[in-house]
Every structure is written in structure tokens, then in C-alpha cells.
Amino acid sequence: MRNNLQKWLLAVGALALVLVLCHREGSATSAADVRKKTAVNEMYTGYKKEFPAVTDITPKEVMELLARQKKVVLVDVRTPGEQRVSMLPGAITQDELLSNLDAYRDHIIIGYCTISYRSGKLAQDLRKKGITMLNLKGGLLAWVHEGGKVYSQGGETQKVHVYGPKWDLAPAPYQTIRGKGGAD
Question: What is the pLDDT of residues 16-44, one digit of tens each?
Fold first, then answer.
């Protein structure tokens, strides 16, 4: 009888721990979202091997920087079609950065894409030219998993662009838009 009570108490304790770990800012995070967030981090870790000298910055660190600093520029390196679906708040395009680089030399430059592979490659290329661009660890997907907002021309949106099923890792309630060309 005592063993059964101990097992029951252990099971209740484990369930309580899972509920606490899955709770985020007043709303429960589903097990599926936890798996997706883990997959984003694992995928980015694999990609990071191709640009090891690039400095990463987490979504939470970016949010803190944006809250206290004025000289931060977010650079979206995705295609125009992807950008039409959604972008991080106040972000500029890669073309805007490269065509007016001198205007941003005194800024903290942070690049991103869906998972931050393409932005990591750009940061690596810019580094060779003496320009520091931090790379948003896990990209737009990690951003929304951390509670960051995204915007389209119509305002805040719950849509994110992904290339295909492999990257279909946005948390609820986000809707993913798939396709290589974006919304073109």
C-alpha cells in the first residue's frame, strides 16, 4: 500500500513539474510547441557550424536591446515575398542595409531570416569586410517562440513564412505560409 502511495505521489509531482515547465506568461505552452522550439534550436545549432566565427544573439537579448537602445537595426535577409508575409518590428531589408551601409556603422546590426542560416552567411561575408553583424539565434521562428511580435504592411500578424515542412515550426497560434518564393 505504501509503495502505491509513493508511486502515485511521484506521478502527481512529475505532472506538476511538467505543467510548471510548460507554463509561460500566463498561458500554457503545448507539448507540440515545446518540441517545435527544441527543433528550431537543434536546426540552428547544425547550421551554425557553417559560420562559427559569427556572434549569435538570442531573441530575448534583442528584445532587451530594442527596449533600451536607439541604435539597433534589424536586417531581414529573406526574399521580398517572405518579407511581405511578416517581418520583425522596424526591420530593414538586406538591400537597404548594403546600399546605405555608412548610415548604420554606428548601430548594432542584427541579421535574421527564417532560422538564421542565410543571415549567418551574410554576417560571415560582412565580417570579412570588417563589418560586424550579429545573427539572431534561431531567426524569426525563435523570435515568435519567445513571444516576439511580427508585422506585415497591415500591422501585427500571426503569419510567418517557411520554406516547407522541415521549417514548419512556428508556435500556436501562428499560421505558416510555405513555398520557396514566399508570397510572390
Answer: 444 444 444 444 579 999 999 999 999 99
State how far the Cα of 140 lies from the Cα of 16, in Å rounded to an integer: 31
CA distance 85 to 47: 24
Q: Which set of grid coordinates corresponds to residue 38? A: 527544441
Cβ distance 160 to 86 under 8 Å?
yes
Q: Record the pTM.
A: 0.82
Report whether 178 contacts 163 (CB < 8 A): yes
What is each CA distance from 169 to 10, 66, 166, in whole angstroms?
A: 32, 25, 8
List of residues 6+ apart from 178 with CB closer than 8 A = 161, 162, 163, 164, 165, 168
Of the candidates 47, 12, 151, which has an alpha carbon nearest to the alpha carbon of residue 89?
A: 151
Report yes or no: 51 and 135 within 8 Å, Cβ to Cβ. yes
Do the Cβ atoms of 50 and 123 come closer than 8 Å? no
